[in-house]
Amino acid sequence: MNDSNQKLKIPETLIKTILDIARPLKYSSPSNLFYSGQTPIVAYLLLNGLVHFTKNGKVVGTFTRGSVIGLKELMTNSPISVDAQILPGTEVCFIDRSTILGILKESGQTPLKEFVQNLLNVDTTPNFT
After folding, report:
1. Where is the Cyclic nucleotide-binding domain (predicted)?
2. Each residue of 80-104: pLDDT tens digit?
3. Exposed/middle/buried for residue 68 (C-beta within 10 Å: 0-12, 13-18, 19+)
4. What is the pLDDT of residues 101-115, one digit of tens each?
5. DSSP designation for 21
6. What is the CATH number of the domain that holds 9?
7. How far apart are CA 88 and CA 29, in angstroms?
8. In angstroms, rounded to a whole number, what is the distance separating the alpha carbons of residues 112 and 114?
9. For residue 57, is it left (φ>0), alpha (ψ between -120 and 50) or beta?
C-alpha cells in the first residue's frame, strides 16, 4: 500500500454502524487473509490488532484498528498484489459484496455511504520502492 493508508481508515463513529451489519471474528493464531494474485471475496475491517502486508516475505505495510482492506479490489473484481498476514488476537469484520452494494443503494447520503464511495476512489496501488 502507498501513503493512502490513513485514507483507508474508517472513522470511529462508523465502526459501530459496521458492527450492526457485519459479525466480528477474532483470530487466535497467525493466518493469511489472502495471497498475492487472489481476488478477495470479502473486504475486511480491522477492529483490533494488526495485519501485515508482505511482498516476497518482507513487510511492506501494517494496518491497525479502523483500516478497511480489500474493498476496492472486491468491488472491481481485481486481484490483490500482496499477501496479508493477520496476527494473533486480531479481530476483523468480514464485509461481503452484497452488504457493500446495500450501503451504496441506501437512499440519501449517509456518512457510511459517503465513506464507502470515497474509499472506492482511493488509489490503493502498492508502491514498493
Report:
1. 10-104
2. 999 999 999 999 999 999 999 999 9
3. buried
4. 999 998 888 899 888
5. H
6. 2.60.120.10
7. 4
8. 5
9. left
Averaged pLDDT of the chain: 87
- 2 in helix, strand or coil? coil
In a domain, 92, yes or no: yes
Strands (E), 35-116: 42-48, 51-55, 58-63, 68-69, 83-86, 91-96
- Residue-wise pLDDT for 21-57, tens only, equals 888 999 999 999 999 999 999 999 999 999 999 999 8
How many domains, in total, are found in the chain?
Answer: 1
Radius of gyration (C-alpha) of the chain in whole angstroms: 14
The answer to whether residue 29 is domain-embedded is: yes
Q: Whole-model pTM?
A: 0.84
**25 sits in which H/E element:** strand 24-26
